[in-house]
């Protein structure tokens, strides 16, 4: 009972942050409802949403208990990048870019592990665990690059008759807006998310959560217009 | 807690700039892709029109060449043969008195010349359907059927309502006539049929031509999928493409084959069409 009360209080106090957690259910449900996971990219999106929901709920629980939950966020970064860039592996047609995606996933995972150790010299001290210093910024840059490469291919190949009814365009647009909003905020999260002497950036702290919610809504639109019949024709 | 308003404002402005860029990228992709697709479609249409024009020119050249050959046959060879026949007639009178053997040779020569004249006439008519221009589609098709029925053990029925309808443009009539010829010839050559039915109906919008036979039939889909479509069928489709027509082939359950062509109605204009018959030769101006 006390736990539920603490959850409700947290939701009440951090509504925008919690919205980004719970809205995840909408595209997740829609992917299953529209059977969009027949497409390998949407299958990866489904895995990402499930992973995101689990990690977010764990973090939500620890946040209500006022326990440092940043280790989960740090661990989710390479998983998130692998799954989201993996979607582009199936959509981008150029072989060299596909190889680039694979190498970037491996390289980025190694880089994030290094960054976790670099940002936290005492890795066993979970109470004072900090966010990674560079990995999120690098993730933003890489993801923006893959999105732009995909858009370039869409324009060049002219295979999509109406882009507004093409599901992956909405997924890409959502990701583009999210990572664009996050790219300048990501480097300073290492200094803002601290127990002691954090950097105060006010409303900016909420911007990634707002755009995360917007991104999830864009995912939902993309999944909603997904048609298994259209996918079979492709 | 550290407070840095300057940094916050800098990040806010940078984030807003980045978001604007992202927004413009999305808009750019949407509009540029749409424009490119539109241009591609336009280019495709131009290409299609050009192909049609090429085909039209090729078929027109073919008809002109047919007319020229028919004119040459009629005016030159036909005239010369007629003169030969006259000469032979005169010679025949002289030879009759010489002996029986010479008379027989003479009669044989006369018969051969007469037969050649008939052949030349037939070839001339086949090359240019003069009946089509003078009396219209129905009469031309009927004449074509009569010729076939005379030469082969075949029953061809022709049902038409073209008598009530206005005359169609020269190109449309010629296309339908040539298609009918090709379809009937195909039935005779390949289907081993004993009966062919031709239905020609014209209403205010379309002309419907249906050629059905009771032969062995063919599977149009298999023919198309295996790229076995012969020159005849391709020729039909090419001719129809010029007049915006379409053709469908069916395999009726009771056997045989059925071809169903649709051509939009294009009534003949008042301007007199170029003569199809070979009897008017254009004089060259020197």
Shape of chain B: elongated
* CATH class assignment of chain A: Mainly Alpha
Element-level helix/strand string of chain A: HHHHHHHHHEHH
Structural class of chain A: mainly alpha
Order of helices and strands of chain B: EHHHHEHEEHHEE
Helix content of chain B: 55-70%
Strand content of chain B: 5-15%
What is the correct CATH architecture of chain A? Answer: Up-down Bundle
Q: In what range is the share of β-strand residues of chain A? A: under 5%
Q: Would you give the CATH topology of the largest domain in chain B?
A: Heat Shock Protein 90
Main sheet characteristics of chain A: none
In the predicted model, the low-confidence regions of chain A spanning at least 5 consecutive residues are none
Oligomer: heterodimer
CATH superfamily of the largest domain in chain B: Histidine kinase-like ATPase, C-terminal domain
Explain the overall architecture.
- The complex is a heterodimer of chains A (234) and B (286).
- Chain A has eleven helices and one strand; from the N terminus they run αααααααααβαα.
- Chain A is mainly alpha-helical.
- Chain A has one domain: Rhopdopsin 7-helix transmembrane proteins (Up-down Bundle), CATH 1.20.1070.
- With 286 residues, chain B is an alpha+beta fold.
- Chain B has seven helices and six strands.
- Chain B has helices at residues 5-96, 100-127, 130-135, 137-151, 170-190, 220-225, 231-242; strands at 2-3, 155-160, 195-202, 206-213, 246-250, 257-264.
- A five-stranded mixed β-sheet of chain B has the order 2-3-4-6-5, with helices on one face.
- In chain B, helix 5 (170-190) runs antiparallel to helix 7 (231-242).
- Strand 1 of chain A pairs parallel with strand 1 (2-3) of chain B.
């Amino acid at each position: 009972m006390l736990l539920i009360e603490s959850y409700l209080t947290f939701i009440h106090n951090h509504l925008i942050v919690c919205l980004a957690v719970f809205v995840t259910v909408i595209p997740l449900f829609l992917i299953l409802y529209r059977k969009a996971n027949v497409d390998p990219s949407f299958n990866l999106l489904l895995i990402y949403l499930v992973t995101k929901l689990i990690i977010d709920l764990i973090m939500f629980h620890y946040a209500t208990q006022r326990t440092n939950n940043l280790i989960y966020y740090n661990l989710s970064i390479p998983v998130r990048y692998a799954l989201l860039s993996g979607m582009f592996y199936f959509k981008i047609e150029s072989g060299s870019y596909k190889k680039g995606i694979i190498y970037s996933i491996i390289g980025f995972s190694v880089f994030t592990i290094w960054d976790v150790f670099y940002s936290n010299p005492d890795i066993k001290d979970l109470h004072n665990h900090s966010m990674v210093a560079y990995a999120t910024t690098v993730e933003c840059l890489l993801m923006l690059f893959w999105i732009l490469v995909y858009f370039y291919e869409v324009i060049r190949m002219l295979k999509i008759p109406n882009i507004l009814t093409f599901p992956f365009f909405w997924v890409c647009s959502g990701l583009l807006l999210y990572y664009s909003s996050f790219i300048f905020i990501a480097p300073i999260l290492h200094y803002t998310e601290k127990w002691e002497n954090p950097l105060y950036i006010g409303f900016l702290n909420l911007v990634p959560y707002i755009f995360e919610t917007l991104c999830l809504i864009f995912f939902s639109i993309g999944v909603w217009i997904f048609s298994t019949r259209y996918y079979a024709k492709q | 807690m550290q407070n840095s308003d300057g940094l916050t404002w800098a990040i806010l402005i940078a984030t807003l700039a980045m978001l604007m860029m992202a927004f413009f990228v999305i808009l750019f992709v949407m509009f540029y892709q749409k424009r490119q697709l539109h241009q591609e479609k336009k280019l495709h249409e131009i290409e299609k029109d050009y192909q049609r024009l090429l085909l039209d020119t090729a078929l027109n050249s073919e008809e002109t060449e047919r007319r020229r050959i028919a004119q040459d046959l009629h005016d030159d060879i036909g005239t010369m043969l007629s003169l030969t026949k006259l000469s032979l007639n005169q010679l025949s009178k002289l030879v009759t008195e010489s002996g029986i053997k010479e008379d027989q040779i003479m009669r044989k020569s006369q018969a051969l010349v007469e037969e050649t004249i008939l052949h030349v006439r037939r070839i001339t008519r086949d090359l240019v359907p003069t009946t089509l221009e003078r009396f219209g589609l129905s009469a031309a098709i009927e004449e074509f059927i009569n010729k076939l029925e005379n030469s082969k053990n075949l029953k061809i029925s022709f049902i038409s309502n073209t008598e009530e309808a206005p005359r169609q443009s020269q190109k449309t009539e010629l296309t339908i006539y040539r298609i009918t010829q090709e379809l009937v010839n195909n039935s005779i050559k390949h289907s081993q049929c004993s009966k062919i039915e031709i239905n020609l109906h014209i209403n205010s919008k379309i002309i419907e031509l249906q050629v059905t036979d009771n032969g062995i039939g063919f599977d149009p889909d298999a023919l198309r999928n295996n790229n076995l479509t012969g020159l005849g069928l391709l020729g039909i489709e090419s001719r129809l493409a010029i007049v915006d027509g379409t053709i469908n082939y069916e395999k009726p359950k009771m056997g045989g084959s059925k071809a169903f062509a649709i051509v939009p109605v294009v009534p003949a204009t008042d301007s007199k069409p170029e003569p199809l018959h070979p009897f008017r030769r254009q004089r060259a101006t020197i």
